[in-house]
Amino acid sequence: MGENYDALSNALNNLDNTVMNIHEEVLVQNALIDNTADDVEQSKNVMDALTKKAQEYLGTSDNCQTCSATVLCIACMIMLVVVMSLYG
């Protein structure tokens, strides 16, 4: 009978250790998620500010025009880099 209690006690101790490990891992994962959420929020704020500045510069509030102008500027920069690397 004592063997059964010892086996049960060992199983419960193992289960307790497993639960504590899972709890610690969840705390770590929550901290990582919170950090990522903060980074995403900061990036969103920067992008919103840049979009607002681009719209003011372009004199439009149309996001399609702003996006098109941004894509064209990026494409021009890429072409400039390619030309400079080929002929520079």
* Span of the ends, CA to CA: 87 Å
The chain-level mean pLDDT equals 88
The oligomeric state is: single chain
3D shape: elongated
Q: Please summarize the sheet with the most strands.
A: none
Proportion of beta-strand residues: under 5%
The residue ranges in which pLDDT falls below 50 over 5 or more consecutive positions are: none
Total separate domains = 1
Number of helices: 2
Structural class: mainly alpha
Count of DSSP E strands? 0
Share of helix, binned: over 70%
SSE run: HH
Write a short abstract of this structure.
The chain is an all-alpha fold and 88 residues long.
Structure description:
This protein is mainly alpha-helical and 88 residues long. The chain has one domain (2-87). Helices cover 93% and strands 0% of the residues. The chain has helices at 2-58, 63-87. It is elongated, with a radius of gyration of 28 Å. The model has no long low-confidence stretch (mean pLDDT 88).
